[in-house]
Amino acid sequence: MTEDRSELGGSELADRVIKEVEQEVPTEDALESIRPPVPDNRSVSNRWASAGMPAEKPKDFKSSTSRLLSQLKPQRSGMMLVLLLAVGSVTLSVIGPKLLGGATNIIVDGVMGPEGIDYPKLHRLLAFVLMLYIASALMAYGQAYVLAGVVQRTMQRMRSEVEGKLHRLPLGYVDSQPRGDLLSRVTNDIDNVAQSLQQTLSQMLTSVLTIFGVMIMMFTISPLLAMVALITVPVSLYTVKLIAGKSKSRFVAQWTHTGSLNAQVEEAFTGHALVKVFGRTQDVEESFSEKNEQLFKASFGAQFISGTIQPAMMFFGNLNYVVIAVVGGLQVTSGAMTIGGIQAFIQYSRQFTQPLTQLASMANVFQSGVASAERVFQLLDAPEQEPEAVQTERELPAPAPADAQPEAQSEAEELGGAHAGVSGPAGRVEFDNVSFSYRAESPLIQNLSLVAEPGQTIAIVGPTGAGKTTLVNLIMRFYELNEGVIRLDGRDISQMRRSELRSNIGMVLQDTWMFGGTIRENIAYGNLEASEEQVVEAARATYVDRFVRSLPDGYDTVVDDEGGRISAGEKQLMTIARAFLADPAILILDEATSSVDTRTEVLIQSAMAALRSNRTSFVIAHRLSTIREANTILVMEAGRIVEQGSHEQLLLAQGAYARLYNAQFAAAMTEVA
């Protein structure tokens, strides 16, 4: 049943069409099935209301520690040198107290004896001890220098591993992670691992060697006092283990909440203007305060509990000192020990308890580093995108299907563009029974078959959230298919290297992206080998040259992702110029004119017509007036293609496309009225 819409007023027509469109709006359940998986803390309701990410359950501490230390394996030679220098430094330093005890005996014997103090012998002994300490200090300096190089080279390699991992991660993983938390793992956590290793490796190695060296020297002076000194060690170690166990989970929570807070700050900063416009400053501040409070509690718990280790160790050290002083005094009075011997032993007792205290105090720093390492390892262990197909450089493209090959070849020959013939792909894209879903229980695209011949324009339309961008993401292999095949000129794209596939595709996204650099550099990003003339030609073709000439620095004007002096529409033009310069066989325009005014849109459409002339183009747009000339229009709703055909065919069908088109027409009539 149809009515003559010309007899209806503007507002009546709008109401009638809106009611028709509302019947086609997908339900929330349908929309949920076409969204990529996103964690709870990124949902709209949780963005401002959530107090923060829950503390992650720590992994096996021993395995994480072992894996962290295994990162040092490529630096074996450096670690061996560090070990040799540490052994030399500790050996020389632990000999000193016994020699000083001998110096004390020289003084005591001289004072008590008739011959007086043997000063030449005393001077030689003290000079020798001084040389030992100087040599020990030089070796310790060399140890610190070499270890710094070992740790920093290890961290450099770990950063490279993380960087490489980020490029191998599927788009679904990146979409499901808060960007601030991901950045925190790459920066803060790796920096904390480096700092922890730098502080603890040298100290722990020196402390362990000192403990064994001092124990040997104590047993050579007095086995009895040595046994007394060792009595407090088991109690000390048990105390450290008890405290470390309680603080371990809190360090993991500390760095987890640090990542959550970074995500909050990054999100609020990126949307700073919108936060101001919608008056959500107080909400952001409250959310920040809650997450900051959680970080405070986690950090306070970790630092306070781990901070009790050193006072506990000092208590046991002082207790040990008192017992040794009493027992040693009795040994001296009975003649079993000399004054120099008890003096040397007391020095050794201090040297013995000091590394124990240092080891205990280093435990919290090391645990913090392991907690950060766990978060980095979680990123490194994340599932990667499917590996590239193994191909040789001489491998020829698979032939197109027999029934389609002549047509595609003749089409390419007619076009005669840069992408025809053997110089590059013709741009024939075929969807063969393609099925895809983000979640197994929620099918999205099912049994889609479609052929885009070289030079054709395929428009994809539908309500917001219908899954239009998902379709082009499949062409780019950002996601892998569940079933079916997508072919480029007869070749299965899953058997092509991603770099090869994407080198033939140009994309203009709805969200513009500019890196820190000049306008010239941002345009040339599409083709790094382009000459100055080619950059300017691309800028002129896309009307970038007009506004660039008005800037004081012209093409040398520095821009970044936040824009600065460049408007949103001008940034959109620059991204189009970038795609123009890339000269791809396939072009994807995702809401390419959504950020420009009507006049600029007209200019862009004429530039896009020239850009699409010899290219297979996939255009995603809400403004249906911009895709009337498309060869094929796909209409998507709730992730499914419900109609396809030309503009005229779909209007005559009076289906979903006609309702969308009439809705925009009614809106335009209402604005005019």
UniProtKB/TrEMBL annotation:
One of its GO terms (molecular function) is ATP binding. Residues 429-663 form the ABC transporter domain. GO terms for cellular component: plasma membrane. The chain crosses the membrane at residues 77-95, 125-151, 208-231. The keyword Transferase does not apply. It holds the Pfam family ABC_membrane. It is found in: Cell membrane. The keyword Cell inner membrane does not apply. Residues 23-60, 384-424 are annotated as: Disordered. This is Unannotated protein.
